[in-house]
Design a protein that fits this description.
With 105 residues, the protein is mostly helical. The chain has four helices and no strands. The chain is elongated, with a radius of gyration of 19 Å. It binds zinc ion.
Length: 105
């Protein structure tokens, strides 16, 4: 796996959104790390992804790269779902604690 992504920019770029989101396996991340050391254009692509990663609006994404826009939209939707699940878990936990405290007499 070490040199798996050598000269495989297309594959790496497909995986970079997952890499930036820390959603890929450690093994994949390691292979991407190795590729990034030797590939300035993929490094640029990664910093572009990271700059759009958190707080950008969909309209900020340049029209020049529809694939990039599509990938970022998918990532954003996944992130929203994940945040909702975390919020639901926290609310459930707080509700259980509240019930336990209120019924603890
Ligand atoms: Zn590359």
């Amino acid at each position: 796996m070490k040199d798996f992504f050598k000269n495989k920019c297309e594959v790496v770029r497909d995986l970079l959104p997952l890499y930036a989101d820390e959603s890929c396996s450690k093994e994949t991340a390691k292979a991407i790390d190795i590729h990034l050391v030797t590939c300035p254009s993929c490094r640029d692509y990664l910093s572009e992804i990271k700059s759009y990663h958190d707080d950008s609006d969909v309209s900020d994404i340049p029209d020049s790269d529809p694939h990039f826009a599509e990938v970022m939209n998918k990532l954003r939707k996944r992130k929203i779902v994940r945040r909702s699940l975390v919020s639901a878990a926290i609310i459930t936990s707080l509700a259980i604690n509240a019930v336990l405290i209120l019924t603890n007499d």
